[in-house]
Design brief:
By secondary structure, the chain is an all-alpha fold. Helices cover 84% and strands 0% of the residues.
Length: 338
Amino acid sequence: MNTHSKWANYSIVIIALCLLLYYGGNVVLPFIFSIFITILLLPLVNFLERIYFPKWLAAIIAVTLITGLLGGIGFFVYTEIDVMARGLPEIIKQNKGVFQQTGDWFASFEIADQLEQFSKEIVSNSAGYLQYILSYISSTLFMIVTIPVYVLFMLIYRSRVEAFINLKYQSNLAHAQLVGKKINKSVQNYIIGLFFVVLSVSVLLSTGLYFLDIPYWLLLGILCGLLTLLPYIGVVIGALLPLTIAFLTKDSLFYPISVMALFIIVQFLEGNVITPNIIGNAVNVNPVALMLGLLLMGALSGILGLILTIPILAVVRILFDSSEEFKPFAKLLANSDE
């Protein structure tokens, strides 16, 4: 096969993958997510099997633990958002927020009426916005409810995958096993590190919002911590909700300014201290490739695609690095030489 034919085939494969993600993302992405969770749980399952747990029981225990953890977090967020959606409009009515104060400050100008109207619209629509968020989270949870089933069967029947690899790459089995170990280590380090990053950001933001006396400080801190799953943009997006609540429920600009300062400090710490020290070079993907990947995955697959962008790029980089033909592309994707 000549070079032009080869690259034409590669182009067809790339286009097919993009179409698959765009039209079948609700099926494909939960499956990919399940693969990463399976890789994360492998050490626990292997440990349970070494102490004579049956394979099926070890898999059930591991899946139950991870499902309980994620399900508990999801249930807390779901119920607290519902509580906030019902109670926030009343809190706003009982407090004279910055929007109303601004209207008083500019009472001598014509914009006072517009500011008052804008404030009323936000108050009247706040419950609707929160209910929309709640509905979106519900649909997302419904989509990923199949993930524990995928993970369970992947753990139980993983020996079939090992047998396939042994047969497929029997002429170069040691190399294939080395690549598999690199992928497992990268994914495990990334997911575990990401958990501690989310926990650290959630604690920092919740503590700061608590001392600023912002309503629903714990929920807002956890939500913004979870948004760290979206690289670069997560904390910025997360700042909008507590900032808006501070405007609507507090009668001084000190609070929204303080909330903004808090998020700037946490964003700086997350990007320059927390993430580099906890995750380090677990993925080794440069920022330019990451931004392009985020744009592409976001356009094709939405939020779940954004969350999976980093581990997918990490796996792609390792696979490229294992191939002499694609090794230059691995160097292009890498953030640093390993």
